[in-house]
Design brief:
elongated, alpha+beta
């Protein structure tokens, strides 16, 4: 019965750690795919033909960052009117790394993977046109796999460490109980005079009976 109970506890403990492993990886997957949005131009704000765009890596990673630029252009006076519009994303070396050209009333999303750094978004439109431009960045995507590996490894180490600590404590308690169960004659004798050891410990009277040889 006792062995069966211990086996059930061991299986339950393993199951809990497996569930914890799944939960922590699901949470990290959601974090890694989460996107940070930045409004470059929008309704109600002054239009800027040049916008500085900074792509910053996390934890010092130099891997390319997945980004998406969503644009929509609408004529202010006549929404049905079409006009030519375009934009270009330029890096610090004046190289065009992403671009688009079309007309108003088009909802377009351009996806790219770019290295961290400083960029400039140049937008060309006619008068009375509203520009709606949004930049979405997934900063943790480049280290998603590494994050899964590190978190899983850390959890496994903690699980084995917890098991080792449990075993160590159980052995210490068991050894302590074995020592306490030893017969009196096998216990370590106390330091002191024989008459003190044989004397009633509860008798605190200064007057003692003489020892008869």
């Amino acid at each position: 019965m006792e062995l069966a109970s211990m086996e059930r506890k061991r299986l339950l403990n393993i199951s809990l750690w497996v569930i914890a492993l799944l939960i922590i990886n699901i949470i990290w997957a959601n974090v890694a795919t989460n996107e940070a949005s930045k409004q470059l131009n929008d309704r109600g704000f002054e239009f800027q033909s040049e916008r500085e765009v900074s792509l910053q890596a996390v934890f010092g990673s130099d891997a390319d960052l997945p980004i998406s630029i969503t644009t929509e252009f609408v004529h202010r006076d006549d929404p049905s009117r079409e006009a030519n519009v375009s934009w270009a994303l330029i890096d610090s070396s004046n190289n065009v790394v992403a671009s688009w050209s079309g007309s108003t009333n088009e909802y377009v999303t351009i996806e790219k993977e770019l290295p961290p750094g400083e960029y400039t978004l140049n937008t060309t439109i006619e008068d009375n046109i509203i520009a709606i431009q949004t930049l979405d960045i997934a900063p943790f995507a480049p280290i998603a796999t590494l994050g899964h590996f590190l978190l899983s490894t850390l959890l496994v180490v903690v699980a084995f460490g917890e098991s080792a600590v449990r075993t160590f404590i159980a052995k210490k308690v068991e050894n302590s109980e074995i020592k306490d169960d030893k017969p009196r004659e096998f216990r370590k004798s106390r330091i002191g005079m024989p008459e003190v050891d044989s004397h009633d410990e509860l008798d605190d009277s200064p007057w003692r009976e003489p020892i008869t040889l």
